[in-house]
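Lesson 9: reading folded outputs for more than one chain in a single document. The general rule is that every protein is listed as its sequence immediately followed by its structure tokens, and records are never interleaved. Here is the first one.
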Amino acid sequence: MPTPTTLGKDQVSPVGPVRLETQYDAELSRWLWLVKWLLVLPHYIVLLFLWIGFLLVTFVAFFAVLFTGSYPRLLFDYNVGVLRWSWRVEYYAYGSLGTDRYPPFALGDVADYPAHLDIVYPEHLSRGLVLVKGWLLVVPQLIVAALMAGGYRFNGGLTGLLAFYAGVSLLFTGRYPRGMYDLNIGLHRWVARVLAYGLLLTDAYPPYRLDQGELEPLG
């Protein structure tokens, strides 16, 4: 199977600035998923503090965008890093169960890890839009995201249910059904776009479009 190639740092998918890509691995441990809740506890502890920082950074960034039309790059990189770290953990754990490779403790992208998330830095953001997109405009998409993954999260909802069924399949067959995997990643991709918009990281409204599979669509 060919290894997926992620889009370059400055490339933008035809769908928008949010890029979520993975690498499918059908042969996973039959039993490891049963104890991943324990193995990821160190990550969840670190992420608790990182998300506190995320909320503080978003508060500061709100006013920065409101008064300057720009999201400070260091703050942007931190928040994208927290989302990226969270996605890797949930890809390993109960958001997808997509890999048995333990996620790294890192905000930056790890090229050889099978789960990637990136958001293209916006040179300019609307000063007016920042007042309404995070609580009003995002609401229809947030309802969809809540059904898919529990809202502003990467696990729960339909994605969590699919991951559970994948775990049962692994337990009895040793394989992750490809169709189930592709649907799970497509749902996560949709949620990631909603996250980026609702958390003020982009002005690109997320499309009502389910792009399944490992790679972002190229048109």
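And here is the second record, again sequence then tokens.
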Amino acid sequence: MSILEGIVIFVVLAVSGGMLFGKKDRRLDTVYLGATVLAVLLHGLIDQFRIQMVLAYVIAIVLAIVLIRRIIKPDSPKRIKSVIVKILLSVVVLAFSGVSGYLSVLLPVFKMPQPTGSYAIGTVSRHLIDDAREETKSSDPSDKRELMVNVWYPVDKEQAKGKPLEHYPSELGEAISLVFGFPKQLFSHVTAIPTHVVTGAEVSAAEEKYPVVLFSPGVRSTRFQSLTAIEELVSRGFIVVGMDHPFTSAKVAFPDGRAIFYVPDPEFETSAEVYENNIKGVAIRVADSRFVLDKLTEWNSKDPEGLLQGKLDLDRVGIFGHSYGGATTAETLAQDKRFKAGVSLEGGFWGDVAHTGLQQPFMYMMTGETAKSFDPNSTNKDKVFYEEFQPDLKSVMTKSTSDTYYMTVDHFMHQSFTEIALLSPSLFAKEIDPVHNIDITRSYVTAFFEQYLKGEPQKLLEGPAPEFLEVKFDKQYTQKRTPAQ
């Protein structure tokens, strides 16, 4: 709950109590009215009106109407004398205010953790069309595969000063609504949450060029879902490209006003059919990743906007993703050796990678809850667990020829690799501090790419760390190997 939200609720309670149990006085009513209107207006102008506070707004509106009538016509309406009626009205006011307060705490307007690197963060969004591929999920057979990407890049902090900060887009609320089944209106306030990203800034000239990392989100999610990790990478000298994949991302909004929403897969009777369908779905996303890297190669040679030209170190390209994006990461590494390293945040293994392993360094992070599903005696399997998961994981980790890391994270659920802990600590970070939750993901992802794209050894990857006791290294699958020549 913000300070101004707390003030609105306090004023509503104080004014209601004064009107119900205090003396009727025209001058005092004027003070009450001024306080109510001022509190609500300041909240709306400085914060943002949001659905969590709607019951408090209702009380404020009723109070304002009654007060205006009392000021204009001091003798009408007559004061309520019944103690029972006063008590009932007090209960209603307390209940409405309590619900608003509870929802405001449950779904706060949070503040993003500060990135730790030396760079500020700039961004540009771009609309891409792959003329070589048909859009197989479109009703129009002539449609080509279209993508939306954001490029986040390092900016000199001095240049970023004074520029307005970007806010989370509404797509984040759409994604949370789809994943958890909540009304999307409950998350409309995300657009009031500032990031650390600016627009209209030049790429920093502190380095000649920067290593590149692609990001692929989960199904029903968005390229903005893990912005804390993206910001951390960029602040430490990476260019990050977030991709949205139409029909599997929650919502892909294009510059011309069109939007493509998530389309669920059909129901399948057997797990084998689901597995084969996932292979096809991941293959489309892998083609997206390879196409994006092709476009980056073009822009590095000649960027129509001039922003990225010569700034991309395409000899140092990585990729990471969450869930289906993690599966996209693993299969992209298997199919395209231009990608030099990758991190999967609890993704599956659908495609060639399950049979061949990887030649590039690879890190896999899994939640402690999902890891419990590997126990053959466990009857309560996590919903992201599937029959082939364990043998596929073993195959990838044992057949890979470069360094592999496999860690489990206690007190994490599947969505903990996103910003969900900040969006509702009470619901999604019950056993862990929400900022610490965020620090785990962004610290390990950044350490991995600093070691394998920048060649900077990272102590965090050597084994258990006292600052992150929740992270457990699996000795069998965490192996340092000599990369294949």
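What the second record shows: The chain has a mean pLDDT of 92.
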